Every structure is written in C-alpha cells, then in structure tokens.
Amino acid sequence: AQKVTQAQTEISVVEKEDVTLDCVYETRDTTYYLFWYKQPPSGELVFLIRRNSFDEQNEISGRYSWNFQKSTSSFNFTITASQVVDSAVYFCALSEKDSSYKLIFGSGTRLLVRP
Amino acid sequence: DVKVTQSSRYLVKRTGEKVFLECVQDMDHENMFWYRQDPGLGLRLIYFSYDVKMKEKGDIPEGYSVSREKKERFSLILESASTNQTSMYLCASPPGQGFTDTQYFGPGTRLTVL
Asked: Tens digit of pLDDT for each residue in A33-80?
C-alpha cells in the first residue's frame, strides 16, 4: 500500500543552521510523483517542488535543495542557512499513476527557526 | 496565477448543525478536492470531484457529503456536525487531470464544533 513517512515531528534550529527534513515513501507503482509543500502559520499550503520517479537528479532552488534516492525510497529536503521565515510545517506527498487523482501526504514536520 | 478561495477562514458551529464549506476556483479546472488536516495525521482526502455533478469518495467520507453544481464551486457539507469534525479543512484544485498535476490549495477553513 502507498504510504509517506515523515519521522521528524518537530525540528528546532538556530538561524543560519542547515536543516534536512526526511521523507520516506512506499509504493508499488514504478511511475509516481513526489511533492513538497510548505504550510506557514497563515495556513495555506504552498507548493515547493514536484519530482517524477524517472528523474533522480537532485534539485537546487536558492537555499532549498532536494535529494531523491529511489534505492532508499527517500525524497529529503534541505534548507541551507535557515531563516526565521522558514518556520512552517512541511509536508511530503506522493501521487501514483494507478491512483490517478489521489495525493498521499505524510504527517508533516514542524520546523522552528529561532533567531 | 492559480487562485483557490474558501468562504471562511474560521468557523464555529454547534453540534448537530448543518455546515457548508465553500471552495471556488477561477481557473476552469475540472478537478477539485477536499482534505481534512489533523495534527500528526497530515492531510486526508474526504471527497473529490472530476466534473460538474461528478464526485468520488476519498479515504474518510463518513459524515460528509459534497456538491458541485457549477464547475468553479465545490461545497463540502457536514449534514450534522459533531465535535470530532473539528479540524482544518483544505480545498485544492490541479490545473489538469491525473497524477502528474500539482494540486494548488486554498487558505483553509478552521472549523470548531462545540
């Protein structure tokens, strides 16, 4: 069965530290997509990245980077030089070809960046 | 820009009341989704709709119904609200169909049932 696990419930760091949020997924599909969303205190989910199962290249966008490893079924998210504005809940999610409409979410990781 | 709006940010209702949560998208999208978010559980799919008057149950449809009379509007209905339906409700809509599309979310409605 499909599943997304974010084992870190809450992480607290001091500003300028690097932090990695873990995401492990389970799927029987060979074709799937992985997503990361950010939910700031305002509540709205903000889309960060989408990655398909055939593209294992790592992605960097400013201070954000993502490491996709099919061998370990992981799609980890690293924030470099964290800032207070990065404080939010971050969700990893999975969608599969065989469940065309469905997005499976992890339980989320709350990141607190202290000044 | 993708724009999904929800009628209320905060709502307080009493047990047994009928509650309507409204979601509107102005992008002519076919698909619309309702999720519920609870601490430690992430987001769980309640219902989704892939066309006007078409709907399918998600993972936790019990106690909820939906209505999609017009393409731009997708309503979530709590027929008789209960305290265990106190939660954050999020509406989403992807631009296309299928699993490749990114779902864009509304701001959420935090519902409290007393």
From this structure: 999 999 998 888 999 999 999 988 888 999 999 999 999 999 999 999
Contact call for residues B66 and B77 (beta carbons, < 8 A): yes
**Rounded Cα distance, B24 and A40, in Å:** 22
Q: Which tokens hold the place of A38?
A: 């950010």
Q: How far is A27 from chain B (nearest CA, A)?
A: 14
End-to-end, the C-alpha distance of chain B in Å comes to 37
Contact at 8 Å (CB) between B34 and B66? Answer: yes
Tokens found for residue A108: 């989320």
Judge contact between A58 and B60, C-beta under 8 A.
no
Q: Which of A6, A93, A101 sits opposite B48 (nearest CB)?
A: A101
Handedness of CA A64, A53, A44, A114 (dihedral sign): negative
pLDDT digits (tens, 9 = 90+) for B78-91: 999 999 999 999 99
Q: How many Å apart are CA A26 and CA A94, to the nearest integer?
A: 9
Q: What is the dihedral of CA B114, B47, A100, A70, to 10 degrees?
A: 10
Report A:35-54 residues touching B (Cβ under 8 A): 35, 37, 42-47, 50, 52
